[in-house]
Specification:
Layout (H helix, E strand, L loop, with lengths): L1 E3 L6 E3 L20 H24 L8 H19 L6 H14 L1
Antiparallel strand pairs: 1-2
């Protein structure tokens, strides 16, 4: 089931399990637009808050702990928003594209 977040407008998947992260190249820089940046900031604050709360509670950390599941869900949403941002072309990629255009002309 998916709903829209009232603060960001991004669709939010509501599930009892964390969504697996997509298999994408993570060593490339990404262009993060202001809307995505705001969503990442909110998710980061929520993750930090829940993590601090978990540490302060002195509870036993296990896979079935509701706080751990919530943190995992927020982290997967954070990755999803980040990986939806377009990759920034490296200088080498831009040079290759320019040379291909020059060779085709």
């Amino acid at each position: 089931m998916a709903t829209s977040s009232p603060t960001t407008g991004f669709p939010v998947a509501v599930s009892a399990r964390a969504v697996p992260s997509p298999a994408v190249c993570s060593d490339r820089r990404r262009h993060i637009d202001p809307r995505s940046g705001h969503a990442l900031e909110i998710l980061g604050h929520a993750i930090e808050y829940l993590t601090d709360e978990l540490v302060q509670s002195h509870e036993l950390v296990s896979a079935n702990n509701a706080r751990v599941e919530a943190i995992q869900l927020l982290m997967s949403l954070n990755r999803e928003v980040y990986f939806e941002c377009p990759e920034v072309l490296t200088l080498a990629d831009r040079c290759r594209a320019f040379l291909r255009l020059r060779a085709a002309a």
